[in-house]
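User: Second chain of the day. Same drill as before.
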Amino acid sequence: MDDELPPEDELRRDALIKLLAMGAFSMAPVAALEAAWWGSKPEKLPEKKSFFSLEGEVMVNKQIASINTRVNAGDLIQTGRNSEAVFVVGSDSFIMRSDSILQLEGSNFLLDSLRLLSGGLLSVFGSRSYKQKLNVSTTTATLGIRGTGVYLESQPDLTYLCTCYGSVELRSAQNPNDSQHINTKHHDDPKYISDKAVKGTQIRDAPFINHTDPELKMLEALVGREVPFGLEEELYRSPRRDY
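Assistant: Same format as last time:
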């Protein structure tokens, strides 16, 4: 894995640290932070918009997407090399990393389930009742989710899961009896889920990698919510991407 930040992330990080050194956040901390990181302040998207931003090649149902493309439950979203998509479906919002494939399932803008077939996905989900639990699957794991934030990476033989905050019911796709209930406040318990068992389990502890608190804050803002933690300390933490 490469510990160097991509150029756009280096610029974002440098701008944020300079603002902190200048005391910019003492006057307008949230606005200054978000403008420096994203170029503009993320706000709740209008109901008729799905995409907040697109970089590179993004496809919806195998058609090239634009900033005006709508995303519905039931759509297939794909990102190409060096690409990224930030979008909202109902009360849920997402950042798809490069080389990712995501199948949404549900009706209109209400998601019932989603499958991350490959790549990386940072997501925040709105609250759901017990009967409305969202089902998420990857190549090696299945998740039961209610209002929470999660980061996933899906490879053919391995899944990475960080429950950024909230609760997740985690099961191995190969062995449903191999399961854990994860309840976290702030990236407390990341996991790898492999297609092969080690010492009787396919679930093992993992490090915190490849996503940040500013990204989570932005995703929550796009659906009119706030993250349940402070933010400034994240500016000095590990790189967003570690590929």
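The first strand starts at residue 51 and ends at 55.

User: Great, on to the next one.
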